[in-house]
Each structure stands twice: as C-alpha cells, then as structure tokens.
Amino acid sequence: xxxxxxxxxxxxxxxxxxxxxxxxxxxxxxxxxxxxxxxxxxxxxxxxxxxxxxxxxxxxxxxxxxxxxxxxxxxxxxxxxxxxxxxxxxxxxxxxxxxxxxxxxxxxxxxxxxxxxxxxxxxxxxxxxxxxxxxxxxxxxxxxxxxxxxxxxxxxxxxxxxxxxxxxxxxxxxxxxxxxxxxxxxxxxxxxxxxxxxxxxxxxxxxxxxxxxxxxxxxxxxxxxxxxxxxxxxxxxxxxxxxxxxxxxxxxxxxxxxxxxxxxxxxx
Length: 268
Prior knowledge:
This protein is an alpha/beta fold. The chain has helices spanning 3-10, 20-27, 47-50, 118-121, 144-154, 182-197, 211-221, 254-266; strands at 45-46, 55-58, 65-69, 80-81, 108-114, 124-126, 132-134, 137-142, 172-176, 202-204, 225-229, 237-242, 249-253.
C-alpha cells in the first residue's frame, strides 16, 4: 500500500497501521487472516484487485484462507482506487507502456508548508472578500553538498575526478615538471598570470615534488584543463590536455594553449 495515495483518496492528513487489538475488534480475526468478505467496515479495493477473476484471501478466521474469492460477488467494489506501490512492469498511467525502475539522485526538494508558519508569523493577505488570511508557503531547495556528491559520482574516473568547467574549483591546472628549473617556472608563471588576467581560474603547482606525485594529486583534484610544462619550456612549448575530452595530450606553444583555453572558458 502507498500511504500517500491512500491519504489522497481519503482526504486524510494522517494514516497509520492499526494495532492487533483494533484489528481483531474491527474484523474479527488476527492480522494475516483478515479477508474482505463479510466485513462490516468500509473496504477499499485497489483497481488491480477489482479486475481479478478470482483470488485467495484471508477467511476471517485464524489459520485459514479461502480460494476462489471474487471481487464484486464476495465483497463490494464501490470504493476502487489506485492504492498500491508501483512495481516494475506495471502499466504507465500516461502511455500505457511498462514501467521501468532506475536509480536516481535527489539534489533538490519541494515541501508544502501550508499555513503552519505564516499564521504564527502574521504573514497575511487580503482575499477578494476583504478578509485577512495566512499565505500558503512552500520551501524549495537545492543541496549544494548533494550536487557536489552527484557530480563526483557521475564524473569519476579510475584515477580521480573531472569537474565540469562550470563548477570546477579551478578551471586550469598548470604543472611544471621541476620547480627548480628556471625555464619551466618562468613559462609556467607566465601562463598562470596571462590566463588569470583574462578571467580564468588557475592553480599553479609550484611544489618541489616528483611529477608522478603532482599528476596523481591533479587527477584526484579533478581540474578539467591541464598544462604540463617540461623540457620544451625553453622553446615555449608545453603539453595541453582537456581531461573531459578524449584524455590525450598535445604539445602546443603557450600562445596556442592560451587561445584554446580562453576560447573554451570564455568563448572568446
């Protein structure tokens, strides 16, 4: 049973399961053996049950069930509705095709608050008749932490993350192979300043660490555009990689690299 569907049908604010004593008193049988036939209380029938030619149900006596019970003959079907949880293979109410269940990610929510807070806060409006009434409130939210988790899950790789440009903590990662190499550092710092001046968010890894350590950390951080400045720095050439593409690297001049990055980031 789907409690939301049931509450909507009954126009009830709250529903709950009856305890065993209440069930025995109302139905004359313990839980598990109550059937729809012979009940003196209203019987709500799911639309799928109403269409069954025959069924098995509780016999209204402990330890017994009855076969061949027929909706409409053995119990009334004047209160028919959609009361149960949807299941894979059920008919879609819109297209009549089969329902398929897929996993999703909840990153936002909407809550109907009604007048719970507006009445207490005195948030009122004047209706057409001139009366003062509390406004109906709603709450709409998107969880930033949920978004980050969802992006990380969808954009993960075996070695780390690849953030989309729109939400990346930095858009460009500049990595000199050796922080002690004068030519490499000069070229890396020049790229860093040039791209920053054009509005790009750039991270420069100037640590005195081995290249393998830097690249491993870079994969984990997940910055989508990467520049590795190595031995060809003296020629004004570095390795450029768009990690959200095919993952390959290209040897380009710093002018070409800057042009590609600005075009990708700024559309210029």
